[in-house]
Design a protein that fits this description.
- The structure is a single chain.
- This protein is an alpha/beta fold and 312 residues long.
- Helices cover 50% and strands 17% of the residues.
- It contains 14 helices and ten strands.
- The chain has helices at 19-24, 26-39, 43-49, 52-55, 58-80, 96-104, 109-125, 143-153, 176-188, 208-219, 242-254, 259-268, 282-290, 302-309; strands at 2-7, 89-92, 132-138, 159-166, 169-175, 192-195, 229-231, 238-239, 271-277, 295-299.
- The strands form two sheets. It has a six-stranded mixed β-sheet with strand order 8-7-2-1-9-10, sandwiched between helices. A four-stranded antiparallel β-sheet has the order 4-5-3-6.
- Strand 4 (159-166) and strand 5 (169-175) form a beta hairpin.
- The radius of gyration is 18 Å and the shape is globular.
């Protein structure tokens, strides 16, 4: 049975996430302590206790979600002898790509926390509040129809496909004028569209200032050789070289998250089991739609890790 570890992105956060891991495993506690020290603040308290509106701020949500993913991964390795190298691939949704790289050994946990805090701040600052928007196209929507809707929106402003999650879940992003025009056209085409409650137009050209900030931050970051390979968001292909990863992480800020293609590619390569490591179960649901013959499970709680380790 070929395994891939996958790591969640923004939207999976909730106060209390990871607390059971922290309570159960010394290895998990070490991760939360390491991240608190790296950031010079008690992020762990915010993760465990909230308030939700503060945890949801992009600059907090990004390192917080990574913290929970790595707390679970470290416990898997230390307590249950299941290292990341047991998998054929790792992949992460947007910020989850950083969690995947840390799990595979490319980045230290402290460096990853600092990079994600920089990324969150830069993404939040890139566009004044109210000028950008995102919307989910749901129902019988594939990427071709989403691209047609985005192209129509682009006649009025900036509008691109940001996340190709699965058929029936494609996210568009851009300026408010572009998204408004796209939503009107989606209605004409009979596609259901929901405006998303987000603080910035992620994965669109409007994020270029954040991409520039990350190019600078990543240029001085230290990357180690890593295993397993990362299936990258922007290419849906495996990457092994740290220099290429650096480049793709910059492109990822403005580029499309090709999640559907990534899962389909891994399934074609023989991955039959996808384990979502960290908070929530959003990616597990996406896997079931993109690779219905594969097993998908979420590793959130101590009992999940224990049960999973017995089957590896």
């Amino acid at each position: 049975m070929t395994l891939a570890f996958i790591f969640p992105g923004q939207g999976s956060q909730a106060p209390g996430m990871g607390k059971s891991l922290n309570d159960a495993f010394a290895a998990s506690r070490e991760v939360f302590q390491e991240i608190d020290e790296a950031l010079g603040e008690k992020l762990s308290r915010l993760i465990f206790e909230g308030p939700a509106e503060e945890l949801t701020l992009t600059a907090n949500a990004q390192p917080a979600l990574m913290a929970v993913s790595l707390a679970a991964m470290r416990a898997l390795e230390r307590e249950f002898r299941v290292p990341a190298s047991k998998a054929a691939f790792v992949a992460g949704h947007s910020l989850g790509e950083y969690s995947a790289l840390a799990a595979a050994g490319a980045l230290t946990i402290s460096d990853t926390a600092r990079l994600l805090r920089t990324r969150g701040n830069a993404m939040q600052a890139a566009v004044p509040v109210g000028e950008g928007a995102m919307a989910a196209l749901i129902g019988k929507v594939d990427v071709a129809l989403a691209e047609e809707i985005a192209a129509k929106g682009a006649e009025a402003g900036i509008c691109v496909v940001a996340n190709d999650n699965n058929i029936g879940n494609v996210v568009i992003s851009g300026s408010k004028a572009g998204i408004d025009a796209a939503l009107a056209y989606a209605k004409e085409k009979g596609a259901r569209a929901i405006a998303l409650n987000v603080s910035a137009p992620f994965h669109s050209p409007l994020m270029q200032p954040a991409a520039d900030a990350m190019a600078e931050a990543l240029a001085s970051a230290s990357f180690a050789p890593f295993n397993p390979a990362l299936v990258a968001n922007v290419t849906a292909q495996p990457v092994h070289e740290p220099a290429t990863v650096r480049k793709l992480l910059v492109e990822q800020v403005t580029g499309r998250v090709r999640w559907r293609e990534s899962i389909e590619w891994m399934a074609r390569c023989g991955v039959t089991r996808f384990a979502e490591v960290g908070a929530g179960k959003q990616l597990t649901g996406m896997v079931k739609r993109n690779a219905p013959d594969a097993e998908a499970l979420a590793l959130n709680e101590p009992g999940d890790l224990e049960a999973f380790a017995k089957t590896v």
